[in-house]
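worker-03 picked up job from queue 'complexes'. Input manifest follows; three sequence lines, order preserved.
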Amino acid sequence: MSGRVEAAGRWGLVAPRGGAANGQGPAPLGARFARNRLAVAGLVVVVLFLLFCFVGPLVYSTDQTHTDLTQVNLAPGGAHWLGTDAVGHDQLGRLMYGGQVSLLVGLAAGVLATVIGTLWGAVAGYAGGWVDAVMMRVVDAGIAIPALFILLVVSAITSPGTPGLILILGLVSWLVPSRLVRAETLTLKNRDYVLTLRATGGTHGRAIRRHILPNSVSTIVVAATFQVADAILLVAYVSYLGLGVQPPATDWGGMLSAGLTAAYSGRWWLIVPPGLAIILVVCAFNAIGDGLRDAFDVRGRS
Amino acid sequence: METLLYLTRRLLQALAVILIVTIVVFCLLHALPGGPARGILGPQATAQQIAAFNHEQGLDRSLPVQYVYYLRDLVRGDLGTSYTLNEAVSRLIEQRLPKTLVLTVLSALVGLLLAVPLGMWQAVRRNKPTDYVITTLSFVAYSTPVYFLGLVLVMVFTQSLRWFPSQAPQGDTLAQVFADPAGLVLPVVTGAASMVAVFSRYMRASTLENLSEDYVRTARAGGAGRYAVLFRHVFRNSLTPVIAMLGYYVPVLFGGALVVEQLFNYPGMGLLFWSAAQSSDYPVLLGCVLVISVATVVGTLLADVVQRVVDPRVKEGRV
Amino acid sequence: MNDILEIDGLGVTFSTETGDVPAVRDVSLRVRPGETLALVGESGSGKSTVALAAMGLLPGTARTSGRVEVDGTDVVGASEAELARLRGRTASMVFQEPATALDPLTRVGAQIAEVVRNHRAVSRSEAAREAVELLRRVGIPEPERRASAFPFQLSGGQRQRVVIAMAIANSPGLLIADEPTTALDVTVQAEILDLLRRLAADSGTGVLLVTHNMGVVADFADRVAVMLRGEVVETGPVEEVLLRPTHAYTRKLLAAVPRLRFDGEGDTPAPDAPAPAAPAPDARSADADVPVVRLRDVSVRFGRGIRAVQALDGVSLDVLPGETVGLVGESGSGKSTAARVALGLVAPAAGSVSLFGTELGRTRGRARRALLSGVGVVLQDPVASLDARMSVAECVAEPLRTHRRGMSAAERRERVGEALELVRLPRELAGRGPRELSGGQRQRVSLARALVLRPRLLVADEPTSALDVSVQRTVLEVIAELQRELGFACLFVSHDLAVVQEFARRVVVLRAGRIEEQGPVMSTLLRPEKEYTRRLIAAVPVPDPVVQRRRRAARRTGAAT
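worker-03 finished. Artifact:
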């Protein structure tokens, strides 16, 4: 969409056909991405959070396994910059510690979902016909079952650890990328260069390897970015509903869940930091996805 | 004739999707530890009791046969019996579903009524401060976990300002729900927030795309002013694809309702589902999943049909 | 009488990401009431920009200087409200693409009525009645019923009539037509041009006609202005400019236009026309009589049920070794489908396809690929034909990689270089990306790819119709020369009868999926047997105003009898 929109100028008037051709190719990807300030800010936020969660504990070391009932519910200040929670964990340290789980699960589940979705969508789109019809009905069915509900049912049956959580999240959220990749594959397989290749005896394998996959990379990368954002949110929901990783391990959603009652008694430091962390990171991934989509000039989630 | 053919095809597709959903739910039911028998008889049941129960319920038959029986029960409206509430699942859902529908429909309406003008405004003010501010806000709204937003709203509007109650209206009938409109405000606003975020983005993109269409230039060449073009032509053309997205948003709305109901203690299907998850009440869980999935399929179907009515071009319902 | 359009020293500059790009420089033009001025030029010449500037419809990235006056009103400095009062009343515009020019969700009658009510305080029902009357004036049958149709329910020609109805709704003094017939078939083009001419004559409207087609200019214009890179290089009466051009660029442009020869014109061959390719001597080998392509009773249906379309119906044709067969017809005639059947991209519902004497439908896997390695393909769209992610060298090397897997990188590089030279491109282009090339260069890269394996058959589906005439001429010449050198057969799909006449030896005329007639180009296109072919040829405008006037009169009387 955005290519045409770029040309629209003030209030949707297209540049005249064959009018001003500027003779130069588009600016390189990095430059186009850098022009989107929100996206650049998103990238900075993600990098900062990765440093905070994975390098932070080396600098600011806290005990997140043992409870310390002498240091319960302390307000921010002194030795505990962000205070302590109901069992005496340092809240800032816990934010780093929980962030590791949130980010790890989010990234891994997002990538897993994209991989599954890409394979499924590419096969359906390229095969076409009844194979496509059946595969897409399965996707419709998957979309019809709200992911949160399926997650709760599965979590009720087994209580998953981190790898299990990644697997389950990946398995319930591959549907959107599969639809995007299918649409992309459908367009690409009818491109003139693919038709030319097939008409002159090129194999399907070559068409997929040399043309369809490389040309879908941008769609896939954009989808993956949005997928990571959604996965981080989903982890937070699962943990909030009490079905995420089990204590003493935690994640941002779990921290929110644990601090829920505290919110009514004015202990904001148990609620606001993890909440803001989730919002910031998810926002950041969405902004990156948005910037990448504009830079790649691909269609995707709006 | 053409429309009839389309409707038939679309209905068949929807049925196929529902069939796949039943297979998924059926598989989940049999993936339960110890199978349905252990779930129903409880952890204290002996092996003999389980075997007897299995035989009585036909659970020792082959899976495909059981699936056929399961389907037969579904068609009769029999979703099983709740372990904990000791009532037919269908009865429970019958009581709770209307309340959830009130919540989701209100949220969707409020969300759309805000999102559509916002998206259009952004498109018109593209790359101006207005656009950036709304874009940033919608990113934030989309990225905020629903329960966190609800919590913040409660802290602000209930605890500090004391404008609205933190509890949703209680009571079994819809009349009782509507008797307390103030109680509905926070749940509906919470549910609508992410909807505004998502749909204002759709509407913005769709409007931008339409603003660059040739027919805009034709209309302006005929002497139509900017706002005349926007409201007479661009608005309708931009809205139709957004309507088509509504169908796919149904599961998200139900997901939101699950959290909102739990947060505001609203006795709808979401709360039913949540408590069922706490007590491993599988028949209720799976019954709810089935009903919501069917609702989604119906929602998508309706959105497609509506789009076909609104947009005479849509000859082929591409799913 | 005052000029209805007066342009003086018009300059337009677009600001882009890479800096300012001047599109139009110091253009001065005049259109008098009742007169038609044709603005001609190739893509990028700035002709459409001038047209949009006259309506004040340029995008916000454009900066305009100079003076543009429509019926005495200044356009350049006018406010949006002043422009809105002007547009659709004093000056109207007809656009190129009838498929997208109308609001898809509004009934056509309502769209016309809207233009009426934009400028005159008439009631809704009065405007609706006027809309029906306008539809009748532009020759839409059953206007009362058609007024409530949606645009998608009308054909391309009818949609363009609706756009014209909108343009004349308030009897404007100036009508600007930007390539009004470029997206239409020739027979429809002739009707639309007739309509525009009649309307302009009836009401004394001045017309600014923007076009790249010299035939249309000869058919319609009183005066001509030729544009090159944003400037007007030659202006004059149509006979002067088309028959006695003074500027070198105009001469070059006119020389590049493929000219249709027709019965009664005198058999002078067009200047610089490549002679129809004769089969190369070595093609007359033992299997000279085995056709490289043979379609037998081929039928193709798209879709199922009541929406199914019969794209081809019992089509049989042969292409002999070394020979060029032109496949012509209007849009929807099935000519591209026939080419795709020959390439094995579309499987026929009935009938058989043979390549080089082997039935394509019976071969599988390796054998099928080996068979297809004897085929080269060039398709219409210069942008979509090359994968933008590959270098030119990779694009051209693709057939080598599929069919000569053992070939060393060095040898492959050599073959790619040879192929590029073959199509008159420098070897240095190999490292570039397709995005850096012009449309004509891209089509020649496609041709190099098609010929790198020295195929026995080239299938070219409208290989030059997206190109400007001068570029088209070069590409066609390259193909013709290579054909003489290499002796491949060619299945050439085109909507342009003049190009086919110059380029092919035999011609197959398709109509609605059936073969209307086929035979040697010189007899079939000069003395067609079928009424349909005659109509098709009569509708092609030739770039000679004197001859074209005669043809038009003949077509009218022919249509009357």
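worker-03 released lock.
The first helix of chain C runs from residue 47 to 55.
Chain C touches chain A through 60 residues (CB under 8 Å).
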